[in-house]
Amino acid sequence: MNALRNILYLSEVHKKISIPLASLMAIGMIACSDSEKTAGGGPSGTEAGNAITAQIMVAGEPAAYARVKLTESESLDAADSEYTQADKDGFVTFENVSDGNYTLEARHDGMALQREVPVEGKSLDLGSNMLDRMVSVSGSVSSDGDGVVKVRGMSHSAKVKDGKFSMDSLPAGPLSLVFIPAKEGRDTSSTYMKVVAGESSTASTFAEESRALLLDDFQDSNYQNRFMPAHTWDGGWWYFNYSTENVTPDFITEDGKHLFALEDEDGNIMAHVEATFGETVEDSTGKVVWPWATVGIELGKSDKALCNDISSVDSIAFRAKGEGAIVFGLVDETQEKEDQLIAQYELTLGKDWKRFSVPLAEIIDPRFSYNCVNQLVWNFKPNNEEKAVKFWLDDIELTGGKRLSIWKR
């Protein structure tokens, strides 16, 4: 159990991980509609809903009459956006806003910004918000067909010709792109990126939306899960942790910071981890230390207060191979330390790839539920004379459930 307590403590893990974020993206502002209104002043919640107030700034001065847009974070439809204009002092207010997650976007004189706005039962004053340089993005989708790329939560788009697209005049920050093929019957696909102000960026590694609950296939060679909701780029890190007293990782990647690797096998990228287990020892205080090692992935943001409700998910599937055994588990960090591993499922690895499908309803501790899952973990269990585990992992996905119902908080 000491091993599990160590496994579930991640703050130090984040300090060790250096992760190249995926490439970036961006967008152009749509012309304002007839529903546009001019508003200003401070918070002014009404009986009909919440109010969102902000001041838009540029180069330290109010961005007078900046164009501002509020859109549901998961929307691809311009009809879900509300447009307004800041007053002469840069103040803007949206009235009667229902509870939910939104993207606030502003544009003024060649500068832009975006900001995530969660609304939960009260009016919000977002304070000063500084416009920054716009960016451009070009890229390719997973097919060579025509269609359109849209930006989730911002309702911007770009035409795709022969699998290529380009957009400019975009705000910096995390973005979610969805490719909608022109050919009838073709699945849409998506990717997530973070845009750096003033830079040109390249987008790729689109994955089919029919597998929107695919957590990772590692094809972007990134140590961050890219199939999360928009604006959660600060979470979703892959990690490898172990007992330094009696477990030895078999290799370290070239950067010296990841104790597992992403490797290419016939054009497919996968995660690879190995570790050798020693004997149980006592530390300097006389405390017994059991050998343990684990690979894990966060769900959603790093903020442990945010839950992911996967109660609608039927199973979690992944491909794996190797030597030794793995105990797959789910973590609820709202529980006491000794109870955070709320479900587990042991499987034996083989030399050939195998797709494992873990039935969630059958493995959970009856004391708990799947209403607040923070991490997925693959705990090592050597079952050979060498006391070693070799583990290759790929294509982790959730079966059943709806994207928005899972990441609703």
Can you describe what's shown?
The chain has 409 residues and is mainly beta. The protein has 3 domains: 2-21 and 234-406, Sandwich (Jelly Rolls), CATH 2.60.120.430; 37-133, Immunoglobulins (Immunoglobulin-like); 135-204, Immunoglobulins (Immunoglobulin-like, Sandwich). 5% of the residues lie in helices and 46% in strands. The protein has 4 helices and 32 strands. Strands 19, 21, 22, 23, 27, 30 and 32 form a 7-stranded antiparallel beta sheet that branches. A 6-stranded mixed beta sheet has the order 1-5-4-7-8-10, with no helix packed on it. β7 (100-108) and β8 form a beta hairpin. The protein starts with a helix and ends with a helix.
CATH homologous superfamily of the largest domain? Galactose-binding lectin
Mean pLDDT: 80
Could you tell me the radius of gyration in angstroms? 23 Å
Tally of individual domains: 3
Work out the helix count. 4
Q: Give the C-level CATH assignment of the largest domain.
A: Mainly Beta
Q: Compute the separation of the termini in Å.
A: 30 Å
Question: Regarding quaternary structure, how should these chains be classified?
Answer: single chain
What CATH calls the topology of the largest domain is Jelly Rolls
Helix content: under 10%
Strand content: over 45%
Describe the biggest sheet? Answer: 7 strands, antiparallel
Question: What class would the helix/strand composition place it in?
Answer: mainly beta
- Low-confidence residue ranges: 1-47
Shape: globular
CATH architecture of the largest domain: Sandwich
Kindly state the number of beta strands.
Answer: 32
